[in-house]
Amino acid sequence: MTDTGHFLNQMRATAPLVHNITNYVAMNIMANVLLAAGASPAMVHALPEVEEFAGLAQALSVNIGTLDPDWATAMEHAAQVMVAAQKPWVLDPVGVGATRFRQQVCTRLLALRPAVIRGNASEIIALASLGAGSGGATGKGADSADPVEAAEAAARQLAASCGAVVAVSGPVDYITDGVDAWRVANGHPLMPRITALGCALNGVIAAFLVGQPALPATVAALAYYGLAGERAAQAAQAPGGFQAAFLDALYTLTPQDLSAGAKVARA
Ligand SMILES: Nc1ncnc2c1ncn2[C@@H]1O[C@H](COP(=O)(O)OP(=O)(O)OP(=O)(O)O)[C@@H](O)[C@H]1O
Ligand SMILES: Cc1ncsc1CCO
Ligand SMILES: [Mg+2]
């Protein structure tokens, strides 16, 4: 595993423009997370401009949290632009187990070769079961109802079938390309108590991917994010203050801090 701090350093040096088609809940926190980390966010989803904007961005994140049919079309169009230009795009399959509409849209999006898929355990189990045609777990809306370990086989299968890096987030994150796999033990239990921190994480992964190999870049992004959570919990012990302290930690963490504090191990 290449030094995690190197990836943070590269991301900040590039300050990539990250195009996000995300949900209404996530937009503000996601843009603030990306700015604090050192990237440049833009939330753009309207059909008349989404392809043109994707042409400007260095990376794209797509999130189905508050989906509608026009947004689904916009997601496909933006992803097609990225793939044609060999630029990375990241999928967050929010609540994919919950409804047939989410499953249909995700099936179309998976065909467009995301570089990385990051979701919670229930989402990765449900997504992997789409191709297999079986039901799978449904989760609890946008929240996970399964432990990370229960999604590891699904993550490997999904990675192998899609050619994507698949990351399952939770107390200990699991990241695989279908062959190699890593665990990241950074993080804090207050993180899932703030809405859309997982959504915002996908923007950070997209930023880390620019010009970098997907597997180690994703591992580094997750370690950075979790370490910021640990640092935030030293300053604030409840969700409201934690959110502010988390943004501060994303901003103040250095590449040296990350290299020293990353809890990364081969699975
Ligand atoms: N219990 C926990 N302990 C430590 N870290 C956690 C815990 N749960 C989640 N995390 C961390 O929180 C971040 C977000 O992951 P999470 O699994 O909560 O995403 P999510 O379920 O998609 O969230 P959302 O849909 O609300 O955006 C990740 O960095 C993950 O490592
Ligand atoms: C709460 C919620 N509902 C739809 S998207 C979202 C943000 C967390 O995924
Ligand atoms: Mg989520």
UniProtKB/TrEMBL annotation:
Superkingdom assignment: Bacteria
Signal peptide bounds: none
Pathway: Cofactor biosynthesis; thiamine diphosphate biosynthesis; 4-methyl-5-(2-phosphoethyl)-thiazole from 5-(2-hydroxyethyl)-4-methylthiazole: step 1/1
The entry's keywords: ATP-binding, Kinase, Magnesium, Metal-binding, Nucleotide-binding, Thiamine biosynthesis, Transferase
EC code: 2.7.1.50
Record's catalysed reaction(s): 5-(2-hydroxyethyl)-4-methylthiazole + ATP = 4-methyl-5-(2-phosphooxyethyl)-thiazole + ADP + H(+)
Cofactor(s) listed: Mg(2+)
Binding residues annotated for substrate, in chain numbering: 43, 196
Record-linked SUPFAM superfamilies: Ribokinase-like
Family under the similarity heading: Belongs to the Thz kinase family.
UniProt xrefs under NCBIfam families: PRK09355.1, thiM
Function: Catalyzes the phosphorylation of the hydroxyl group of 4-methyl-5-beta-hydroxyethylthiazole (THZ).
Listed name of the protein: Hydroxyethylthiazole kinase
Organism whose genome encodes this protein: Pseudotabrizicola algicola
